[in-house]
Every structure is written in C-alpha cells, then in structure tokens.
Amino acid sequence: MRDLSRRDLLKATAVGAGAVALPGMMVGGSSAFATDGPGPSGATYPPAKLTGRIVRPQSPDYAEASLGWDELFVRYPLVIVFAQETQDVVNALTWARQHDVALRVRSGRHSLEGWSNVDNGIVIDVSELKDVHIDTATRTAKVGAGLNQLEAVTALGEYDLAATTGTEGTVGLSGATLGGGFGFLTRYLGMACDNLIGAEIVVASGVNGAKVLEVDPWNHPDLLWALRGAGNGNFGIVTSLTYKVAPLKSVAYLQATWSGLDDLHGVFDTWQRTAPFTDPRLGSQLEVHPTEILLFAVLAEGSETEARRLLEPILSIGKPEVTVQIGGWGETYAGFQIPNDEEPAKWKFFSQFTREPFPTKAISAIREFMENAPSPDSNFFTQAFGSGAQRQEPFGGAAFPHRDALFYSEPGAGWGTRGEPDSDDAVTPIAQTWIAEFSQALRPYVDGAYVNVPNIGMAEWEKAYWGHNFTRLRKIKAKYDPHNVFQYEQSVPPATS
Ligand SMILES: Cc1cc2nc3c(=O)[nH]c(=O)nc-3n(C[C@H](O)[C@H](O)[C@H](O)COP(=O)(O)OP(=O)(O)OC[C@H]3O[C@@H](n4cnc5c(N)ncnc54)[C@H](O)[C@@H]3O)c2cc1C
User: Domains of the chain: which residue ranges?
Assistant: First the structure.
C-alpha cells in the first residue's frame, strides 16, 4: 500500500506529481506527465482500439449487459466495454473522443435516472475491476472501482474493518462514494466520500486522448476534493478507490415494526428529535410504508441493552415488534439485503435534506401521501444525520456539502415486474405524479438535494446538490475536462473564465 507521507509527496513531485502515463499512449505534446491538470492541451494521440470485454447490439448478452437496476429506463448503446484493466478504460475513452461518440461511465448500474447508459453511445463499464488490497497496518484499502457495496463490506469485514457505504449491497461502491454515500455508519465514520483518500482516474487528455492520474491529498488535491461528492461521471472514469478504514468488530442491529400508521406522528417526531443527536455510534433509518412504519438501527460496537436504551424514546411509543441481532458488520450487512429479483422493476425517488424538524403539518402530509401510495412498494425513507461524524470534513475537504442536515429523506415508489418491460405501465404516470406532488408538499420544510438520487426537473439543482461548492467544481471541471467530454443531463459544466 502507498504511504501518503510527506516524503512520498516529494518523490512524486520529482517525477510528475502523480500522473501516470501508460506505454504508447501519446504522440506529440511535450510530456506525458501533468503537474496540475490533465495534460498538454495540444497533444494528439494515435488511433485507439477498443479492448476489454466488448458487447455490441449483435451480441446475445446485449440486453442483459445494457439493462440498469431501474428498468424504467431502457437505453440502446452502440457498444459496452467491460474494462478488465485500466488500459481498457484509457483505450475506450480515447476511442470515444476520436469517434465523437457520446460516452457514459458505469459501475453498479443503480443510477436513478438511467444516466450511466446512453443511446447510440459507448458505456465504459468498470464493474469487472474487482481487485482488493487491504493493509491492516496502515488501515487503508485500495479496491477496484467495480466492487459493489456488499463485496466491499464483506472484504473489509473479514478483517474486522469498515468504511461507510450505503445500505443496498448491489449498489456500486464507486457510484455511491463519488456522490457522497451515506448509510448506517455515517454518524460514526462520516460519509463514504470522507473515507476516500485516493483514487486512480482516467481523464481526457489533449485533443483526442486519455491519461491516468493518481489522486490523493497531495497529488491533484483539488480533484480529490471534487471526487468527494461530485465525482459521478463529471471529471473522468475512476478505476480504483483508496479508503481509510476503521476497526469495527461487532454491531447491534435493531429492527422495529409498527403496524399501521396510527403511531406515525409520535414515532416520526420522536425519531427526528432524538436519533440525529444520540450517540454517534448509532445510525438509523425510519421508513414509512403504506401499512407500517419500520425503524432500522445499527449501533457500532454496542450491545442489545445499549441499543434498546438509546432508542427507548422511540420504542416506547405504541407497541412495536422489536428484534435485535448482534454480529460482525460484514455478516449483519449481508443479512439484511433483499435480492434484486424480489424488488419491483421500476422506481422513482425524490431526494431532500432537512435542517429543522418537520412540523406536524409535514408529518400529516407524509401520512396522507403514504395512505394514497401508487403501489405497495412505495415508501418514505429517512436517514439520521445530526451531530454525527459527517459534520466534520475530511482532511483536504469535500464537495459534499450537506453536513449540517438533521436528516435525509426521500419519497419513493416501486412498481412493475423485473424482466417484464411493459408490466404495470399504467402505474408509471400515477407514480410519477405522486412523487412530484409528495415532494412539492414537503418543499417548505426541506433544503438541498442529494446528487446520488437526482431530482429531474428541479430548478437550481446545482445549488441543491452542492451549494456554494458549485463555483469551485466548475473551475476544477475546466482544469481536468476543459472540452466537457464527460457530460450528461445534470453534469458539472466547465467554468468559462
Ligand atoms: C436501491 C437503492 C438504494 C440506495 N441506497 C443508498 C444509500 O443507502 N445511501 C446512499 O448514499 N445512496 C443510496 N442510493 C443511491 C446510490 O448511491 C446511487 O444510485 C449511486 O450513484 C449508484 O452507483 P452505481 O455505481 O450503482 O450506479 P451507476 O449507474 O453505475 O453509476 C451512477 C453514477 O455514477 C457514475 N459512475 C459510476 N461509476 C463511476 C466511476 N467509476 N467513475 C466515475 N463515475 C462513475 C455514473 O456515470 C453515474 O452518473 C441507493 C440507490 C438505489 C437504487
């Protein structure tokens, strides 16, 4: 593992500040190394060939290779490249630029607007980059960008180590981390992106090429800052991620269920006034479903008694059914996963952060919308933030801005059957309308949105995702992707001056 010491900084600076040129990559230009940007702007590169596992429309596995987790979005890319090594990504990006083909980056396929795929373009898929190097002495882990969250949690769990991830195991570690990444460990260890201390990234270079940059707190620190919360498909293709990891031997996992919504006011109000301010080892999510309320909580290094005590104000409301398990984080995380094929095919969400407790009116609105939900798989999801570790920015800072949120929340609806593209089509407009009206009803009580759960059609989405960090993001974009090679519906545009 690399030791991110001052000495390494000096060594790295002597040879070019962390830029790595792969053999035979470039002709023209004065140097393959860059000290402060993506490379000599006038360089041209020899014609590139696609390498890796290539899937084209004629391939029998094209439909499966193209399909995302949210089957609401169906795209028909020209070609999908499943990279087997970093050079495949370099070749694919160079090829896309030389053929003027739209490109998208993909890892775990969970983009909630289908933005990791594109009609008539190239999908550069890193999901088969699955190397794992864990250094228990320095408590760092360098992993391929293709790991999903379950694979990452499991690999770390074998050493009683952990970093923050989101809750659903099949979500890509890359996509979650680069947009922020919160879950049960956020109040204990910060955002996933706060745990990120380095990355290997393939960026556009020169007129028509690509190159690899090694990014860490000393090499391209501005890019590391940007990757911590705005890295999704904006600056380049991340091929590996380095995390600082923390010891975590055991957790108490508590689940409580209230039948019906009659206790909603008491449960929600008590949760929002206590869970964000409790012991930072305790992370919790409250989910309101059409016919029940669910509380999920994880207490890091805690006992059942402690978990019950910390949650007592909430658990004392009504008569919830409560279960508690004690175990390693890896096995606990694996245990609460729902297999993808048991989930609805199509989904719609709307993300929002909240800084003040919801008033009674807002909780009444949640109840009313949930009682008129478009499908049984609709829910109102929340994640406690408050006084947890996410308040503290990591060394070098992060583009993720919502550190003082009380909680995150999202109305969500799921419908349709996986593998049956037309199933429940009639529900689609009803679910879309429900989400739009639900989020509108809560608009007076929320402030900010989460780029990993993008809000389509939202005015000033840039500010909602990144607040005042957006101006700096545009400057960093202009430095590393001046030609705006990485662009999609809500990508960061380069600064113009
Ligand atoms: C069921 C479900 C549960 C979720 N739960 C949580 C949660 O608990 N906490 C949380 O924080 N979020 C959660 N999310 C949101 C999740 O973090 C985002 O959907 C995430 O962006 C998905 O990443 P992915 O790699 O799976 O998706 P992809 O579709 O592969 O990519 C998503 C975005 O990231 C970009 N991207 C992917 N890989 C790279 C890369 N290597 N380099 C550069 N850009 C890349 C893509 O271009 C795209 O813009 C959830 C989403 C779903 C669908």
Answer: 53-125, 132-247
Predicted structure pTM score: 0.93
Ligand 1 atom closest to Cα of 104? 47
Residue 384 contacts residue 275 (beta carbons within 8 Å): yes
User: Please, how many CA atoms are within 13 Å of residue 334, restricted to the half-sphere of its CB?
Assistant: 12
203-232 pLDDT, tens digit each: 999 999 999 999 999 999 999 999 999 999
Residue nearest to ligand 1 atom 3, measured at CA: 168
Pocket test for ligand 1, best of 75, 103, 168, 418 (most atoms within 8 A of CB): 168
- Considering the chain, what percentage of its residues have pLDDT values greater than 90? 90
Q: Which atom of ligand 1 is nearest to the CA of 179?
A: 21
CB 229 within 8 A of CB 260: no
Of all atoms in ligand 1, which is nearest to the CA of residue 383? 8
Q: Is the CB of 108 under 6 A from ligand 1?
A: yes
Please state which CATH class domain 132-247 belongs to. Answer: alpha beta
**Which structure tokens are listed for 415?**
């419908």
**In the predicted model, what is the mean pLDDT of the chain?**
92
Q: What is the tens place of the pLDDT at every residue in 121-141?
A: 999 999 999 999 999 999 999
Q: How far apart are CA 146 and CA 172, in angstroms?
A: 7
The second-level CATH assignment, the architecture, of 53-125 is 2-Layer Sandwich (3.30)
Q: Which spans in 181-286 are helix H?
A: 186-189, 221-230, 264-274
Centre of ligand 1 to C-alpha 24, Å, is 33
How many residues are listed for the chain in this entry? 497
The C-alpha atoms of residue 449 and residue 442 are separated, in whole angstroms, by 13
